[in-house]
Design brief:
The complex is a heterodimer.
Chain A lengths: L4 E3 L2 E4 L5 E6 L6 E7 L6 E7 L2 E4 L8 E4 L6 E5 L8 E8 L8 E2 L3 E5 L1
Parallel strand pairs in A: 2-11
Antiparallel strand pairs in A: 1-3, 3-8, 4-5, 4-9, 5-6, 7-8, 9-10, 9-11
Chain B lengths: L3 E4 L2 E5 L4 E7 L6 E6 L5 E7 L5 E4 L2 E5 L5 E6 L8 E8 L5 E3 L3 E6 L1
Parallel strand pairs in B: 2-11
Antiparallel strand pairs in B: 1-3, 3-8, 4-5, 4-9, 6-7, 7-8, 9-10, 9-11
Classes of the chains: A mainly beta, B mainly beta.
Chain lengths: 114, 110
Amino acid sequence: EAGVAQSPRYKIIEKRQSVAFWCNPISGHATLYWYQQILGQGPKLLIQFQNNGVVDDSQLPKDRFSAERLKGVDSTLKIQPAKLEDSAVYLCASSTAGVYNEQFFGPGTRLTVL
Amino acid sequence: SQELEQSPQSLIVQEGKNLTINCTSSKTLYGLYWYKQKYGEGLIFLMMLQKGGEEKSHEKITAKLDEKKQQSSLHITASQPSHAGIYLCGADGAGNMLTFGGGTRLMVKP
């Protein structure tokens, strides 16, 4: 069974530039999550989708971050414009619908903002 | 909001030694997950605990949730270099979102 795919794996940009990350969840997983993991910290949830609807985006900095999940499958996370403090690993995870379901994580995209 | 505190933050042990990592919650835990992360990789699911007093084991790793459901421990018996990595506890919140602790970085010296 294929896991959660993410691309790119690494990205280096300058501040004020834009960047986009892509995630393809495990087939059949209705729920998709984007987490931000700053070096030395645990992951922090940015946004959660159920199919193509947003369940929780309370921790998403909406002035610069946006995310979409068209057709309830793939998802993209965009940052525009990027700040130095956005340097982090962006993790995508997916799970089946419901509670207490294991989340399967992708390898992450490491973003460096210079 | 729920907060998880992990201790220790980092740990260096000699191969073959036992070790314990703790995760303490500010609120009652209704679902507690343990994940392992290697540098540059995503999180690998280890175990999930729900009931007070519950204990689960997989190979040489045992996780427990206390009766009050506010603290969990992860115990590794006879550590090996393959156990090295970052161990993260996560608590289940509303809508299956996870709140994570800060992680425990484990190094195992051969």
